[in-house]
Write a structure and sequence with these properties.
2 domains, about 400 residues, about 15% strand, Rossmann fold, alpha/beta, single chain, 3-stranded antiparallel sheet, disordered N terminus
Length: about 400
């Protein structure tokens, strides 16, 4: 759906969309960056920032009725943004991955909507899914003298441009991704991959009472969105010797490939008790394979696509889903406005997400909308209609 440094995301139901991404790394640097570096961000209040992250974890765990865990350690703080304070209306630049699939289309639409709600002028550039294009896009956006820059990163090659923005006193906010070098970034808005992977694993362990055979299905090999979620889940499963992971395979976030993989699972592992998946797009293929074979679909996990909910309702699939909201970059626009007002912001903004099971399916499934809708959507119905999603 969106981009993150070298990380493809999977959001079109007819074809897997590759997008780039980065590993989840939190940092707020107060160290000297050398003579060419911008002034280090004034960063404090780690207890407040840490509590905000923990609250999201606990809220989501409560939604699935699983035990609360301590989030992985990270460097968290509140950034003093007084030096960026300006009078509005604001000019905010947005370097987008581009509307390459339905998730990204929704993401761009929400950015425009939030900019309008904030009475900000939006300077927009689309990379059309090309990491190299984004470098030039950011250069062009900076030439228009924005007061803030929001970036949906497609690769680490943009670090030089972000450094130039920081030197020029332009605050940078990153969304739906995480760059390893945080020194030029004021705030990052991103749903935690570790939280996603762990939540799904917790739910499966609860469903199986700590015992059973499971398969694990990830998106694209080497992509942080897939690998970080998988690593977090694998670590949690290791606590339960009664949980046997019989196989881990990649589906490239393609329903067609997922169906092929699941067809093999049916033959090699006929007694699977659950399937840990990082994508509801993968779950579509899994459901199709089991239904075609006349077998009940094992409990599955993933993110939240309307197309999967349609099949889950039709085939009575047991599931736990945790959305990866397209609205994250819209949230980043609001963070940018807060920065320009001089309000302190977290260096890592915890993203709330819809977390639910098949018991709440009717609350999220939108019968009158396209399979390509990512639910729940916060966009007004009028905009979803314009996008032909509803």
């Amino acid at each position: 759906m969106h981009t993150r440094t070298s990380r493809p995301r999977r959001h079109a139901l007819v074809a897997a969309a590759a997008v780039a991404g980065l590993a989840l790394v939190s940092a707020c640097s107060n160290a000297s960056q050398g003579s060419t570096a911008p002034t280090a961000q004034s960063c404090s209040g780690s207890a407040k920032a840490t509590t905000a992250i923990a609250n999201v974890w606990h809220q989501d765990e409560n939604a699935l009725g699983v035990s609360s865990l301590t989030p992985p350690p990270s460097k968290l703080c509140m950034v003093n943004t007084a030096k960026y304070k300006k009078s509005g209306p604001y000019r905010i630049a947005f370097a987008s991955q581009g509307p390459t699939n339905s998730w990204a289309v929704s993401s761009d639409a929400d950015v425009r909507y939030e900019a309008a709600q904030q009475h900000a002028k939006l300077l927009y550039a689309s990379a059309n899914g090309n990491a190299a294009s984004q470098v030039g896009n950011i250069q062009d956006l900076l030439a228009q003298s924005p007061q803030a820059l929001v970036v949906q990163p497609m690769g680490s090659a943009i670090q030089g441009q972000l450094h130039r923005a920081a030197q020029a006193g332009i605050p940078v906010v990153v969304c739906t991704g995480q760059l390893a070098d945080q020194s030029d970034i004021v705030s990052t808005v991103n749903r935690s991959y570790a939280l996603q992977g762990t939540l799904w694993a917790q739910w499966i362990v609860k469903q199986l009472n700590g015992k059973g055979q499971i398969a694990m299905l990830s998106g694209i090999a080497g992509v942080p969105t897939a690998e970080d979620s998988y690593a977090a889940a694998k670590k949690f499963f290791s606590r339960y010797p009664g949980i046997h992971v019989v196989t881990h395979q990649y589906t490239n976030w393609s329903p067609t490939q997922a169906k092929q993989v699941a067809s093999t699972l049916l033959v090699k592992y006929p007694h699977l008790n659950a399937i840990w998946s990082d994508s509801s797009i993968t779950d579509i293929g899994v459901a199709q394979a089991y239904t075609a074979a006349g077998k009940p679909v094992p409990p599955v996990t993933g993110d939240s696509a309307n197309g999967f909910l349609r099949l889950a309702k039709q085939d009575h699939v047991k599931f736990a889903l945790s959305a990866y909201p397209p609205e994250q970059c819209g949230q980043a626009i609001k963070v940018a406005v807060s920065i320009l007002k001089g309000t302190s912001v977290p260096n890592q903004v915890p993203v709330n997400s819809a977390v639910y099971t098949d018991a709440q399916l009717s609350q999220y499934y939108r019968r009158s909308c396209s399979d390509n809708l990512w639910v729940p959507s916060q966009l007004p119905t009028s905009i979803l209609t314009q996008l032909k999603l509803c």
